[in-house]
């Protein structure tokens, strides 16, 4: 995982050196253990190795993942509790029936599943999640989208490592730029109109 962080940090050095200052040091074993105890299963090895180098980013206006924050493990736990509280309160039920999502093949029809672990956040309830409870056609550890107000759930990558490879390759190809107000954003997004 070191090579992925080196690539990401090198991109930041060239395009947005100040972003290096918002990276947390590596996560503690105890923090990862707390997350795994909470969700009742192990996180993927690639996730743990990646977070051992940097535990996501500080809460900042600038996001590292297409304007979204790369959550620390502590923030992942906070977001997980937020979604679990909504689930336990019956928010995802209507007339005693579950509200279903419209997922890609390989994702369960839940609105939210306690084994969808959010690792990015746009601050408005939308995330990329590591799916540790895929549908039979899916793959354990696949990366899926989670929208608070949209039923579609999409598979973004087959694994955390594949997602990293794809995102860093897009950075290297110039598909993303730095915009002071938002952080790293896709060059074609509306967010880059106003720096």
Automatic annotation (TrEMBL):
UniProt-listed InterPro entries: Knr4/Smi1-like_dom, Knr4/Smi1-like_sf, KNR4/SMI1_regulator
A matching Pfam family: SMI1_KNR4
Task: Give TM segment ranges.
Answer: none
Superkingdom of origin organism? Bacteria
List, for all copies, the residue spans of the domain called Knr4/Smi1-like. Answer: 26-166
Name the record gives this protein:
Cell wall assembly regulator SMI1
Species of origin reads: Chitinophaga arvensicola
């Amino acid at each position: 995982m070191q090579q992925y962080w080196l690539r990401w940090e090198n991109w930041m050095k060239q395009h947005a050196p100040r972003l290096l200052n918002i990276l947390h040091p590596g996560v503690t074993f105890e923090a990862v253990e707390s997350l795994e105890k909470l969700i009742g299963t192990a996180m993927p090895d690639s996730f743990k190795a990646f977070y051992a180098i940097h535990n996501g980013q500080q809460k900042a206006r600038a996001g590292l993942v297409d304007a979204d924050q790369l959550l620390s493990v502590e923030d992942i736990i906070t977001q997980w509790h937020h979604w679990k509280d909504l689930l336990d309160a019956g928010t995802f039920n209507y007339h005693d029936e579950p509200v279903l999502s419209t997922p890609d093949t390989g994702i369960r029809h839940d609105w939210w599943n306690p084994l969808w672990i959010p690792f990015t956040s746009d601050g408005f309830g939308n995330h990329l999640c590591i799916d540790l409870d895929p549908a039979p056609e899916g793959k354990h550890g696949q990366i899926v989208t989670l929208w608070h107000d949209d039923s579609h759930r999409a598979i973004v990558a087959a694994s955390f490592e594949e997602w990293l490879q794809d995102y860093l390759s897009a950075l290297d190809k110039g598909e993303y730029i730095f915009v002071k107000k938002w952080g790293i954003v896709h060059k074609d997004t509306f967010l880059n109109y106003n720096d």
